[in-house]
Each structure stands twice: as structure tokens, then as C-alpha cells.
Amino acid sequence: MKSSNTLFAIIVLGLILVQALLIFCAWIFCALYPTVYIRSLLSEDGIRWLFSTCVENLLSPLLIWIIMFGVSIGVFMKSGFRNVCRNKHDKQIEYRKNFSFYLSVVVALILLLGYLFLSFAPHAILVGVTGSLYPSAFSFSIVPFCAFILFIVSTVYGFSSGIISDLGSWMDSMRYGIQIISPLLLIYLIGMELYKTVIYIFYL
Questions:
Q1: Potential cystine with 27: which of 40, 52, 107, 168 (Cβ 3.0-4.6 Å)?
Q2: CB burial of residue 137 (10 Å; 0-12, 13-18, 19+)
Q3: Would you tell me how many other CB atoms lie within 10 Å of the CB of residue 80?
Q4: What is the pTM of this model?
């Protein structure tokens, strides 16, 4: 864990340094070659852009996907569903946990069949207006649906097995997932701002 935190810290520091170097170099280049087709973040327009788009720059489906999977992975791990998937062939698994596992599989199959029906049945409502799967509600919802089904199945297993005993422990499992992905969130925030800065400076 310590080594992974060090790696994440190095990545974050590297992104920050690249961002600072990019801003400084663009400013110097604009001062030396004012006719060059690039923009400086230290100009009036650049500072105005930086403050007015700071939230807009960070919004993307990827951010939502990271958060959704973080919450789902937290429940997946804390509910014990990960352990029972690993040790499914262990004959010493308790009857209640074994039953909860199969109950979770049934729930997953029901959700998956429902999703497939909405996507591939005649006149399916998740396909595009031209009948194609991309772009469509189906293609836009694949990743969120995967996170959703993992969340629901893990929740069903946790409560039915008794490992998640109340709403408080359920909330703790979700918070645990956010804690796991917090380094990724930080990398995303800094990396996305760097990406948008590159687009602004070079008119991409």
C-alpha cells in the first residue's frame, strides 16, 4: 500500500510540474513570439478562461464512471462477495453464504436479461433512432450498468449473508470504495485540467 501511494504521489507531482512548466513556457513563448498561434494562461483572457471554466473542464462521463465503480467496488469487497467468488469451490463455505451467492447470481442474471431485452428485443427502446447500437442509450449506459449491477449484486449478497448487517455498515462499504479510488480521482482532476489547458493553449 505504501509503495502504491508513493507511485500515485509521484504521478500527481509529475502532472502538477508539467502543468506549471506548460503555463510558464507558453507565457515565455507568447512574449518572445507574439505572432505565434498559441495562447498564454497568464494573459487576461487566459486567467479569465481558467477561472470561468474550472468546473466545466473537469466534467466528463469518465469522472462519473470512476465514482460509480469506486462505490461498487467498496461494496463488492466489504460485503464478502469478492471472497466467496474466490473460494466458491471451498466445501467449507457456510450454507447461508452459499445460498446468498446463488441468490446474487440470480439477481445478476435477471438484471442482465432485462438489460439485454431492452437493448435487443424487437423495437428495443435502448437502441438509437436508426436502430443502431452506437450511438444509443445502450452504448452510453454499458459502463454505468456494469457498475450498477456490481453494486446491486454485492449489496444483495452482503445483506442476505449477514456480513452487511445494517444501513450504517452498508454506507461504510460505499465510503471504503471512495477511499480506494481517491488517488485515481486526484489524478483525474489534475490530468483533466492539464488536458484542457493543452487544448486552450494550442487552439486544439
A1: 40
A2: middle
A3: 19
A4: 0.87
